[in-house]
Design brief:
With 378 residues, this protein is α/β, with parallel strands linked by helices. It has helices spanning 10-19, 180-186, 195-205, 212-215, 247-254, 295-333, 337-374; strands spanning 27-31, 51-54, 57-61, 66-70, 72-76, 83-85, 88-91, 96-99, 102-104, 127-130, 133-137, 151-152, 167-168, 223-224. The chain folds into two domains: 6-274, no CATH class; 279-374, no CATH class. It contains seven helices and 14 strands. A hairpin with a 4-residue loop joins strand 7 and strand 8 (96-99).
């Protein structure tokens, strides 16, 4: 999903401010058809200390005129003291706008959407930071206390009516507006979704089973233990759809009328392509240099990061070369369209698996760095 910064287009920024007083986060994709209801699912076990839950949501793919489910997942916080503010869909007067989520010292406005697991429409009751460590509220989080000891139990009284509505405003949407505290939180220092999250979204886009038209609002992968871990045995399927969903009607409404131009995202942003080959993947985001206060440890981690980047770039290039050789071989054999389509599907799976593996490698490196930073200096 594309993220559009306010400074990128003054005209678009003014339009966004005009249509919605609740548009405090960056605004991305817009569409005239509202997203399906949130599916019912359980939270997978927290993989390790320092991971924070990011709830699942419906994203939109212009290539297929369809929503697709981005599974909820545990994400390693980009720095101590930061929380995740989920993204949300909001009615902007004549269309739905997606407000991108972000990391920050406080949880801001996320449309009043009840995502569950501590995100009940206002703030976050799933945990707190204390002296650089995240403590988990076991009443709303699935945590193994054998591996994670920094836990507590606080019963959360959820005064929000339990429903599965996934958007703010408009016909049938959540009627919520940001509080003064949430408005203030929106102006604090933020970090956009980290690389693991953007790659998680990309992996969801390339999975046909996650499209609403295919799963009827009940995705087979509702949540994962880590970003991109779609093949993990701990993957959680949805128990049920959050409400009735009629894909043919929604998809038909999303299509342009005859002899009318194809609708484009706001600000004429090009539609994202489904990654079939490594060259289709977005440039790899380079993590910021570490700053643990231990120069030797920072230097060691930076060297490991550069080595991992080089190896992953090389693996991308090798896979691209192999896939190009496959295309040349089919051209020489004068293969029919069916075989070409089959090969493209195979290449898409290979590319997705490679990207998922790279996401996991990056996560493991970050985990090692965090564990090392907690060790006393010698």
């Amino acid at each position: 999903m594309r993220i559009i910064s306010a400074g990128r287009s003054l005209l678009f920024a003014l339009a966004v401010l005009a249509v919605s007083a609740a548009s405090f986060a960056q605004v991305g994709i817009s569409i005239r058809i509202g997203p399906p209801a949130l599916p019912v699912y359980e939270q997978p076990l927290c993989p390790a200390e320092g991971y924070i839950w990011t709830p699942g949501y419906w994203a939109y793919d212009y290539d297929y005129s369809d929503y697709y489910w981005v599974p909820g997942t545990w994400v390693l916080a980009p720095e101590p003291g930061f929380f995740w503010t989920p993204g949300y869909w909001g009615w902007g007067g004549d269309r739905f706008l997606f407000h991108e989520g972000y990391w920050g010292p406080r949880v801001g406005f996320y449309g009043g959407i009840n995502y569950g697991f501590g995100y009940f429409g206002n703030g976050y009751q799933g945990g707190r930071w204390d002296n650089g460590r995240f403590f988990y509220n076991r009443s709303v989080n699935n945590v193994n206390i054998t591996n994670i000891h920094n836990v507590y139990n606080t019963t959360v009284i959820n005064n929000t009516a339990v429903n599965r509505v996934s958007y703010n405003g408009g016909n049938g949407g959540i009627n919520a507006r940001p509080t003064p505290a949430e408005e203030a939180a929106a102006h604090e220092r933020h970090i956009p979704p980290v690389a693991a999250q953007t790659q998680h979204v990309q992996a969801a886009r390339t999975n046909p089973q996650l499209r609403a038209s295919a799963n009827q609002g009940k995705p087979p992968i509702a949540a994962t233990p880590k970003p991109g871990a779609f093949n993990d045995r701990a993957v959680v399927p949805a128990k049920q759809a959050g409400g009735p969903y009629n894909p043919p009607g929604n998809r038909a409404a999303a299509q342009p009328r005859a002899n009318t131009p194809v609708p484009r995202p706001e600000n004429n942003v090009p539609r994202p392509r489904t990654a079939v080959h490594p060259n289709d993947l977005p440039p790899r985001e380079r993590p910021a240099p570490p700053n643990t206060g231990n120069p030797k440890l920072d230097q060691k981690y930076q060297q490991q990061q550069e080595k991992l980047n080089a190896r992953q770039d090389q693996e991308r290039q090798k896979l691209q070369q192999r896939q190009e050789q496959d295309h040349q071989r089919l051209a020489q054999q004068k293969a029919d369209e069916a075989r070409k389509e089959q090969l493209e599907q195979q290449h898409q799976r290979q590319t997705q698996q490679l990207e998922q593996r790279h996401v996991q490698q990056q996560q493991h490196l970050q985990e090692r760095q965090q564990r090392a930073s907690r060790q006393p200096k010698r």
